[in-house]
Amino acid sequence: MRLQSNRITEESAAMLEIEEPTLLQTVRGHRSEVTCADASGARLVTGGGDRVLRLWAWERGAGWDEVARSSDAHRYGVTAARWAASGALLASGGVDGVARVWSGRDLMPRRLLAAPGAAAARALCWATRARLLVGHDDGVLCVWHAARGVQLARLHAHEGALHAVAAPARGALLLTACTHSVLKVFDLAEVCRSGCNGVSSSPVVPLAWMDNVHDLGALCADATEDGNMAATGGQDALIRVWHTRVEDGWPRGLLRGGYRLSGHSAAVTALRWAGWGEAALLASASLDRTARLWLPAGAQLHCVRVVHAHPRYLTCVVLAHDMRYMITGSNDRSLRMWSLGSLTLNDELEIPCEALAHFGLGDLKGIGPLDDEVIDEDGIATQTTVAGRPEGSDHTCLQHLWSSTTHSGAINDIATHGDLVATASSDGLARVFRWSEERGELQALHELAAHEYPVLAVDFVAAGAVVLTAGLDGRACLWDVETGVQLRSLCVPAGEEGGAGGEAGGGGVRAARASSTRSALILLGTDDGLAPLWSLDEDNPQPLHVYSEHSAAVTCCGWSCDARLCSTGSAAGELRLYAPPPAARLLHYDPQAHDLEGVQSLDFAPSPSSLELGERQHVLATAGGDSLIKLWLVSQLEDGVAVRAALTLELHGGGASCVRWAGALLAAAGADHAARVWAVGARARGAVLLAVVSVGSAGGVLAVGLLGAAPLLLAGSLSGSLAVWQLPAELPDERDDEEGTAPCFWTQEGVRRWLRDCISRVPGSELRRNEETFLTQRCQQMEMTGFMLLSTSIDSLLETFGFVSVLRIDINKSEEGSEDVELVRMREELQWLQAPPPSYQQETSAPHCLRCPLSHRLLREPVFAADGYTYERANILDWFLAAGSAVSPVSGRRLLSSTLQLNYALRDQLRDFLRS
């Protein structure tokens, strides 16, 4: 392809001349077929049926060289991999139904996105910053906020397997096509607002619905970067091209086009666009062992080159952004790189970048100090640990400190107090440890062997002086922590009338918790559906009281921090709250707190102050076999309690097995082989995912605990291993969730941020504070969203915001040459929001100072970071996530401030360039 300095003239853009592709390199490494691949600059990611995800870097003179790999990226085969636009992050999907987000520099995992009960993930794509779309075999489309690790929406879009997913119109639309030959188009922002309850409770009406788009089903889809075109490929060996239909300047659906491109003789397995507009190029891969290149010819595309790429069928195709090369992947376990012009192994793939060209642009406002910290060659700050080195985790601030196989059976429960740790195991043993800060390890104190069957519960009593254990032998035991001597044995009473068992003989004990008050109360949960309660102030072997209302086994129990409430959960999904003796009465009953396998674990938040609660308010966390973590706000009243569901966290695929609090931090474990930690907001109004730990294939995580002020996360697994991780000392930066995302996703909060950053607080703005308040109030009154800013006429928006009537600015003054400064600014900002994307010619001819140093792409929203360099806002936010903290991409030094400020001067230069 004839290109000069990566620039394409208007004449050549009308009809690109594609030379015969020539083979540059054959890349091998996967032990089974290469299932997916994607490239970003000089980086290539590949995935295979061998479960391995590989990262390759371009070496001048040598070609692609493997620099990192994850041997168990997914428990089964890797099915999809895509780079984010920033080039700092990449995502992968697998047959295990999980999606993962990785650092694009070292392939370190950053987020594990596991939807409960998810079928195999077959397709994924990024839709603007942080939004990741994942299509599954059961026809479900999941939308994830990749930075927060939160599922935004779950849409049962199709009956067939969802193999084709794309986000046309710059992420405003969602295109899905399934193996039942059905294609649908949705408003993606509406899908995100629908939440995770599915179609039945929050129906989302498609903007377009077409049947029989591909005979025998669709297999792949992709959209151009400007979003004006999309393509789908299917089992019928056809490619169909769709154009965005626009009404009032805003995309309403994909109803135009759909014309067929024929040429392949077998199913089309992959599609990839490069360029856009008249300079669009489409690559396709097929089971017929060929790849094809397609170029616009009038209103349609025509095939210009056929590449007989591999001796076996093709599974994936990659097309470079600058159209200099193409990569094909095959069932023959190899990838092949094809030059589309004059590219050779001795050329560079990335534009040479002089860092100083991006420094101090416009002015030096916002430049701050850097932390003196060791960095590596890729610019990632090196973490230090108390003992050992950081190991793989989903957050670089999460440091693996210690691990050991402490039991020969599953670890069922973990209790902590001060520096003490106790574990209960299916091997019939309980163990007590002490954490050594100096040595960075757990030191064994005692092995407690008084149970004949599995020990299922453990807890500390009397300010850590006594440890409580309970097991399936129907007993609970109290032990002296200092000596390891058994102090007392409590035998569970026989099943009573109303209990689940109804037979003589105490049932196995599944739960045991002690109150933290001076006069300790011990509550057990049994297989018989009983919850007996003892007071340690009494020597009576019989329980003080027995709660016997349960219809199934009591699987968990717990105490509020003031011991005025106790709670139980059952295998039938029941949740009960009681008043302890002397009242000893039922205060609240929820028969379906959790579905499926019932309530597996519960825990009260330890301190009301940490969650800004009232004196008689509590937050109760429950975990269920339905894979949900639920937070309940419990308010004690004079005659009872008021309970309401405050928050639901839907992240543990396969069932959530344990929850434990430490201050405002909540740790949870699940059968998806992961432990998670959230920072919970005031009154449980929200939760930010702080860390994720995956234990790989060693076994599901059954128990978790939090230890210490700078919390340590303890995770016990099905295999009997116990691991300790260091959590970040500081809570994560709670940024605006919409920062760096496309305007079509902005809620009212996003619009208010835009008004503040671009209108009222711009340098030189003459708007007074009360006028700024008026603008934000108008935004709230009109329920203004980003979609409204994009799809409403500018004159109507100016009137909506009061620039005519209330602020007394005459919109017609512009005809007299005396237009108000604030009106000019508001109109220009609205025009900038509604402007179409730059043409491909503008993109390729932009001066270097108008490009982001991370992606080398034309800036759209340039911001200063504290290092003095200017980046695209979305890109630097992705970089912070990839690096694990606020680290300068240029210097590699840690930034003491992660604040980003708009570079107003460079924005003006950018607009002048695009207008010219």
UniProtKB/TrEMBL annotation:
<keyword id="KW-0853">WD repeat</keyword>
<keyword id="KW-0677">Repeat</keyword>
<dbReference type="InterPro" id="IPR001680">
    <property type="entry name" value="WD40_rpt"/>
</dbReference>
<feature type="repeat" description="WD">
    <location>
        <begin position="261"/>
        <end position="294"/>
    </location>
</feature>
<dbReference type="Pfam" id="PF00400">
    <property type="entry name" value="WD40"/>
</dbReference>
<dbReference type="InterPro" id="IPR011047">
    <property type="entry name" value="Quinoprotein_ADH-like_sf"/>
</dbReference>
<feature type="domain" description="U-box">
    <location>
        <begin position="845"/>
        <end position="916"/>
    </location>
</feature>
<feature type="repeat" description="WD">
    <location>
        <begin position="307"/>
        <end position="340"/>
    </location>
</feature>
<dbReference type="InterPro" id="IPR003613">
    <property type="entry name" value="Ubox_domain"/>
</dbReference>
<dbReference type="InterPro" id="IPR019775">
    <property type="entry name" value="WD40_repeat_CS"/>
</dbReference>
<dbReference type="Pfam" id="PF04564">
    <property type="entry name" value="U-box"/>
</dbReference>
<dbReference type="GO" id="GO:0004842">
    <property type="term" value="F:ubiquitin-protein transferase activity"/>
</dbReference>
<protein>
    <recommendedName>
        <fullName>U-box domain-containing protein</fullName>
    </recommendedName>
</protein>
<feature type="repeat" description="WD">
    <location>
        <begin position="448"/>
        <end position="489"/>
    </location>
</feature>
<dbReference type="InterPro" id="IPR036322">
    <property type="entry name" value="WD40_repeat_dom_sf"/>
</dbReference>
<dbReference type="InterPro" id="IPR015943">
    <property type="entry name" value="WD40/YVTN_repeat-like_dom_sf"/>
</dbReference>
<feature type="repeat" description="WD">
    <location>
        <begin position="71"/>
        <end position="103"/>
    </location>
</feature>
<dbReference type="InterPro" id="IPR013083">
    <property type="entry name" value="Znf_RING/FYVE/PHD"/>
</dbReference>
<feature type="repeat" description="WD">
    <location>
        <begin position="27"/>
        <end position="56"/>
    </location>
</feature>
<dbReference type="GO" id="GO:0016567">
    <property type="term" value="P:protein ubiquitination"/>
</dbReference>
